[in-house]
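Researcher: Sequence of Ribosomal silencing factor RsfS follows. Predict its structure.
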Amino acid sequence: MTATDHALELVAVAAQAAHDKKADQVLAFDVSEQIAITDAFVLASATNERMVGAIVDEVEDKLRDAGAKPIRREGHREGRWVLLDYGEIVIHVQHEEERMFYALERLWSDCPVIPLTLT
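Model: Prediction complete. Tokens:
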């Protein structure tokens, strides 16, 4: 099983929104073979808590414009690692220190990378 076309569309919207707000290291993984409850992860990082918040706000705005509604949002108050759960996709926006420490891309390295075209 691979990520659905709709999930891939949401990944593209979320990744572009993060990129537009100057997120670092924007990556996406197709985790549909490993996790039954979601199709894809989007990872992005920022150098400070304000940037994490700005990236999260932009991602939420663009996904709302695309008709997606979040199921859950965690970590926004601390601004170090925010998780946005949209069912089909999950977005992780992390402070660069958390990104290095938890190394989610290493955890999911056996999953296919979703190619992103960020402009």
